[in-house]
Write a structure and sequence with these properties.
The protein has one domain: Beta Barrel (Porin), CATH 2.40.160. The chain has one helix and eleven strands. A hairpin with a 2-residue loop joins strand 9 and strand 10.
Length: about 240
């Protein structure tokens, strides 16, 4: 069913491209993808969900076995941009992400994990700069690269369910980062474009303040540099230009 939906979406996009190709000037070497002075607003989103069940659970990579539980990841972000030059824009992006993990059972070597839950929710904001490279000297299809200077604030809960309720740790999390996100954009109407983007380079600083009880707390920090395509972070988006 998912394959059919993807094929149908691809057909609709190609039909739209053919319909507007002549109007947007494919083959015109003087054409730009998006003109100076244009404004845009958009929305990007992503969602992943896994579930493992059964009497004996699921085996993974011949190392993990008896896996039963759920994992879900979702994020959404809204953005606005202004083109100060042909094919170049600056803007802002606001987003929200949610990660939930429930482990009913998991066996690794001689260790066994049961009744574990993990939840993370965070809001983030970014200042962005994006440049487009039109393909085929036209105004329908283009590659782009977006740089983001971002900040994030949220919380993390790690707990287990007991007779006394939920017991575990709570942490406030913070992150400052810079990222490079390449992608492909295609116009499907005169003012609406569809895009796919992929995290390529991310570097930054992450820290958290953790609390287990009123007298038991701790801090943790993490500096990271990642230079590789993050396929899990593949995101789709829609932009409206005016």
């Amino acid at each position: 069913m998912r394959i059919r939906r993807i094929i149908l979406l691809a057909i609709l996009v190609l039909m739209s491209v053919n319909l507007f190709a002549e109007k947007r000037g494919i083959g015109n070497t003087q054409a730009v993808y998006i003109e100076k002075g244009t404004k845009s607003v958009g929305l990007s989103f992503g969602y992943d969900s896994w579930r493992a069940s059964g009497n004996d659970g699921v085996q993974l990579l011949a190392v993990l076995s008896g896996i039963r539980g759920d994992v879900s990841m979702a994020d959404v972000s809204a953005n606005a941009a202004w083109f100060f030059k042909d094919n170049l824009s600056v803007g802002v992006r606001l987003g929200y992400n949610d990660l939930r993990l429930q482990v009913d059972s998991l066996e690794f070597a001689s260790a066994e994990l049961k009744n574990r839950n993990y939840k993370k929710q965070a809001f983030n904001g970014s200042v962005t700069c994006r440049g487009y490279l039109p393909l085929f000297d036209g105004k329908v299809l283009a590659m782009f690269a977006e740089g983001r200077l971002s900040g994030q604030n949220g919380y993390v809960k790690s707990y287990e369910n007991t007779d006394r309720g939920k017991e575990g740790t709570y942490a406030d999390v913070y992150e400052l980062s810079f990222g490079l996100y390449p992608g492909v954009s295609v116009y499907v109407t005169e003012h609406v474009s569809f895009e796919v983007l992929l995290p390529l380079l991310e570097t930054g600083y992450y820290w958290q303040d953790q609390t287990a009880t009123k007298s038991d707390d701790g801090q943790m920090s993490h500096t990271f540099v990642r230079f590789k395509p993050n396929l899990v972070g593949l995101r789709m988006g829609v932009q409206y230009h005016f």
